[in-house]
């Protein structure tokens, strides 16, 4: 398969630089513009990497969240689009590794009980993890409740109900692009709210 090259256009690169500078200051509109500009290309790349359009949709959103968080580290040595493609490629590879690991864990859970009997220490660790997970769920639920309804509804339908973007769009009677944009905004706001809790979940 021929390598996919990031688009090179001087006018586009200049516009990207202006948007990146605004994104560095926390300008959410600039973040959305970058997302809308490159989301189709990122989606196509993720589809090629994973072979799944559902996985590609999630990867596309997560890649842009990572880009927004890391935009301060973008030094401009390459074009923004080249840097974005690199982030997308790396995350797609990580995603596939994590997906494979999850499948292995699920496979182990299907084994007979005697083959996966844990020690008392493992049971204790499992209980501790369960408590942390329960606390985390409450914090996330509270953060979700603080989102405006226009952002909370599409995010909840997609993330919690497992609906695809087209299904959410049909239910809310919104264009698919609007749904993607609102979910993107919701994820940014959610990430900002949950940032102080990251250390205790590690």
From TrEMBL:
The keyword Transcription applies. Residues 113-123 have a biased composition (Basic and acidic residues). GO terms for molecular function: DNA binding; sigma factor activity. Residues 34-102 form the RNA polymerase sigma-70 region domain. Keywords: Sigma factor, Transcription, Transcription regulation. One of its GO terms (biological process) is DNA-templated transcription initiation. The keyword Transmembrane does not apply. SUPFAM superfamilies: Sigma2 domain of RNA polymerase sigma factors, Sigma3 and sigma4 domains of RNA polymerase sigma factors. Residues 104-123 are annotated as: Disordered. This is RNA polymerase sigma factor RpoE. It comes from Candidatus Anoxymicrobium japonicum.
